[in-house]
Design goal:
Two copies of one chain form a homodimer. The first copy, chain A, has about 120 residues and is mostly helical. Chain A has helices at about 5-10, 15-25, 30-35, 40-55, 75-95, 100-105; strands at about 60, 70. In chain A, strands 1-2 form a two-stranded antiparallel ribbon. Chain A is elongated. The two termini of chain A are about 15 Å apart. The interface between A and B is large, with 48 and 48 residues. Chain A binds a DNA duplex (30 and 30 nucleotides) through helix 4.
DNA sequence: GTCATTGTCAACCAATCGGTTGAGGACTGG
DNA sequence: CCAGTCCTCAACCGATTGGTTGACAATGAC
């Protein structure tokens, strides 16, 4: 996968993982505590946490087992920024089309650079 | 997949699809125009657009073929709200832990409702 | 030191995904 | 009407995903 934004979005595309994140806003928790309410195996939750961790949404105090998991705010910012940028542009185009034409022409359409690097 | 938030996040987990969205902020476009810059087949892009459409990020004027695709802002809001909610809580916990304890206790931890419905 | 608890690793499985090719449907332009 | 263009549908393929079970490493309690 490799790029941070893809990993972050993919991590939150799963309802169980979103639920884990939601519950972690209530405070750090161990894997066992986190796994308890679900019907799937502890191993499955462990995998989910690994995905969230790899995406940078969550971190662990690596002190042996029983290690608490806690939320990281940083990557949320990344996503918000991406979404907000395009959302605002989409709304702008919709609501006052001509008013934003100038802005548009600056960075879009002219000299398109293929999809390898993110249009950050 | 079924739930809107999962579909939206999953749709944006792919770099090509994010790039399509980014380009559509520059204005509506046909499938052919959208597909041109990439090296993959037109059919592949058509599939990507179907995913974006199904997620509600994009809509099409169904008038036959050569139909333009355009961005929908609404679902972006959904995602932003979800992310912002937890991001803010994560930051709050991190920066001024005790100040938010009251807020936390209101809706978390007491009476956990298993993961079927989203913790909206 | 012993032993139960906690969590991860590994192998496997069915389902989904992103891509391909091939065929065909539906407009558009003459 | 006919030809060509634009797009989608269908079938297939390899890789990834979310889940399982089983084994085992490491910590904590006594």
């Amino acid at each position: 996968m490799s790029d941070p934004l893809s990993e972050a979005f993919a991590a939150l595309a799963d309802p169980t993982r979103r639920d884990l994140v939601a519950r972690l806003t209530g405070g750090d928790a161990t894997v066992g505590q986190l796994a308890a309410p679900y019907q799937v195996s502890v191993q499955a939750i462990s995998k989910h946490l690994k995905v969230l961790e790899h995406a940078g949404l969550v971190s662990r105090d690596t002190k042996g087992h029983r290690s608490p998991v806690h939320l990281e705010a940083e990557v949320f910012d990344l996503m918000t920024k991406w979404i907000e940028r395009y959302r605002r542009r989409a709304e702008a185009r919709y609501q006052r089309l001509d008013a934003v034409l100038a802005e548009m022409n600056d960075d879009e359409e002219a000299g398109y650079r293929p999809p390898r690097e993110e249009r950050t």
